[in-house]
């Protein structure tokens, strides 16, 4: 298997070249092009956790987290193209088994089927500010594809770093993290307009994104006519 | 006539340098800036019926503008409505464009609405744009435009196809073995034969779906 990242700027996407026996998984609906010998299997299930309950859990987490699995059927090589919804970069992360990665819900594009993908919902804390904080834990060896809203900026943390949750793309689980409000108290945080932040501690790598999708969504959404319920 | 496509693929614009006698036909809202030697003529091009067909059936504009340089060379810059790529293609024959993809062409290219078959019924409108003749055709899309050589069969998600050569056949299929009961099926276009398809790397419909969650919620009233 070989993965080409097409277009480095605002419209990044990934072209995954599959050999017989390879399997690749993506967020369902991310496929926009494929050779005809690629079989697309949509399930609520990746390796590890899944099934109906897993799917509902993902639904509750406000994410369309059904997965598609791609494989070639006819013994020849094939390809599948994966694209995110928003403008921004696509990056691949190689996992060698030494550390798992946490990937924010909106940043997961796809992964090798050799990787195990589990949903982690950081529910209550996030609900107070109306922001859903939702992560996928990806472990094992293989390639993980992430997408960002805007540009991706990798940071090697050695010590401590505070990142607004809306700017977190993915981070290594060797980092410890806690979630807190930016303004010191929930009220001050609410009034000051700052969201929820993640405080990272230790040594490890984080990918951050230049723009916060929720802020963009709010800026556009308030200009749209109200929806029913 | 010289042209340059700048800022590809994210924020592409098309600059065309016209010498007197050159004519450039554009989508009517595409002109962003031009110098004083460039003159515009607005017409329905091909007559009222052709204009109406374009407007009603493909969502392209009723009017197309024709630009010419007078009294010396002139330069015009065209900007598509959405961020994304612009492709220049030498045309000698026919090319099908998804609605909204036409940006400009030289005078020898004509664009007309064509029934796209039932595939359009599901998403992108019943009609596609048929561009024919000889000259240069410029088309645009939301996202990067990727050229795919089809030899046999190739699958493109409906909503990501921008243009394709007329001798390719296509039919509508659904993603196989869908076990997801909560979400709508993915509609796919299956091209077959030998030829080129141009695919865009983003689609407006998923973005609109995503923004939907950020719309204010209507307040229920009792009256």
Q: Could you explain how this protein is built, in words?
A:
The complex is a heterodimer of chains A (229) and B (223). Chain A has 229 residues and is mainly β. In chain A, 14% of the residues lie in helices and 48% in strands. About 8% of the residues of chain A have low confidence. With 223 residues, chain B is mainly beta. In chain B, 9% of the residues lie in helices and 52% in strands. In chain B, the strands form two sheets. In chain B, strands 3, 5, 6, 8, 9, 10, 11, 12, 13, 14 and 15 form an eleven-stranded antiparallel beta sheet that branches. In chain B, strand 1 and strand 2 form a beta hairpin. The chains are: A mainly beta (229), B mainly beta (223). At the A-B interface, strand 4, strand 5 and helix 4 of A face strand 12, strand 15 and helix 2 of B.
What brief labels describe this structure?
heterodimer, A: 229 residues, mainly beta, seven-stranded antiparallel sheet, six-stranded antiparallel sheet, 4 helices, B: 223 residues, eleven-stranded antiparallel sheet, four-stranded antiparallel sheet, 2 helices, 9% helix, 52% strand, globular
Q: What is the helix fraction of residues of chain B, given as a range? A: under 10%
From the spread of the alpha carbons, the general shape of chain B counts as globular
pLDDT < 50 runs, ≥5 residues of chain B: 119-124, 177-183
Largest sheet of chain A: 7 strands, antiparallel
Average pLDDT of chain A, to the nearest integer?
Answer: 85
Kindly state the percentage of residues in helix of chain A. 10-25%
